[in-house]
Design a protein that fits this description.
heterodimer; A: 224 residues; mainly alpha; 8 helices; B: 237 residues; 2 domains; 10 helices
Chain lengths: 224, 237
Amino acid sequence: MNWFVYLLFGGVVGLDATSFPQAMLSRPLVAATLAGLLLGNAEAGLYAGLVLELFSLVILPFGAARYPETGTAAAAAGGALALSGTASHGLAALLLAVVFGLAWEQVTGLTVVAARRVNERLVAGSDTESVLDIDQLERRHLLAIWIDFFRGAVIVSAGTVLGGLLLHALAPLIGLQQLLIAGALLTGGCAMLGATLPIFGNVRDNGIPLALGLVCGLLLILLR
Amino acid sequence: MLLRSFAVQGSWNYRTLIGAGFAFALLPALRVIYRDRPDELQAALQRHLSIFNSHPYLVPMALGAVAVLEQTESPEVIDRFKSAVRGSLGSLGDRLVWAGWRPVCVLMALLLVALGSRWLTSIVFFLLVYNTGHVLLRVYALRAGTRYGKQLGEHLRSAPVERVQRNLQRSGAFLIGILIPLLASGRSLRVELPLWWFAIALLAVVVGARFGAAVRLPLVFALTLFTLVGFALEVIR
């Protein structure tokens, strides 16, 4: 396991969320899976990413809204699940990784706010009379991007290590049946799918495509 | 300008939003327009450092239009133009991308995972499909901006935005419909949940649809509480 590569990966995830290039490498499904891959268990990362992605669907970056940063948190959760080696504890470890990821995204969200405050000092100045020449603008804009990269690298790596330690210590201590955990996670996922429906407009207006989808989904289950 | 537009949010801040990023991305055009006129170049740069916002994928539209206007119009006209398009480009991008293209592509990827596809297939599919739309939108935006300039607003009014948005919404609802039984069955986590769990899942969907994004925080607390109960059970044992 090459921690330098993992740091670079964390930086890319942090950067992709807002600064550059917003190619959705920072989506929880992608970030968690790649984190798991880098730490030796892509499938573990994929499952963490699946659940965390369902919880991220309703988070919309409209305007200047402040929201938790889900990509770096998901990377930390997926990486922690892979790093902790708790696969033998099955869904208990996944449950803990998801809860950790959902908590860690509050921390990552705070780092985003802090980075934006730094950007304000770099390029917006403390008064309306501040002047930037071309070289200053390009240097400071690029510096802001580097700061975001560094932020992502630190927050993903720190979260992965912390989460990994927590999972390693606590996953064996969850005394719940696998089916119950799966049911809880997937019911939460279904609730989040329902919560996503209003994003696509009035639920009544989308009744027919929704119903068609339900029928197709049921058929897929029956046929497989 | 197109390449720099990918970094337009690099210095996003609460005071000028993407103002500095806009100036950064516009610099190549300004350098050409104000070649051999450094004072005017600096003045133009300073003007564009002020507050500005737009959806990042549609910012090339504003960049292209402003690059055209810088050659023919006064600073006041350019400032009014930027103020006018700011809200439109923001809300258009939010509707088409953040609340349209992106969740639809994510749902397709989730569907592949739920159907048992390899992780590589799902991830690569999602990134390829999503970013094809992403890059095409940026290219279209830059071309439209440079072509229509000040008439950009009229062009946007005649674009089939409502139709595209409606199709994305229907697709999203359809994909959610397919995913619900797949999630409820447990197969996405490689377990087999009993049939009656489908009723609980449907109830959860209804609650989610009723309360929307507000359901997220209570769900997070519920999952945390569930985990703590798990610890308590093990301690009792």
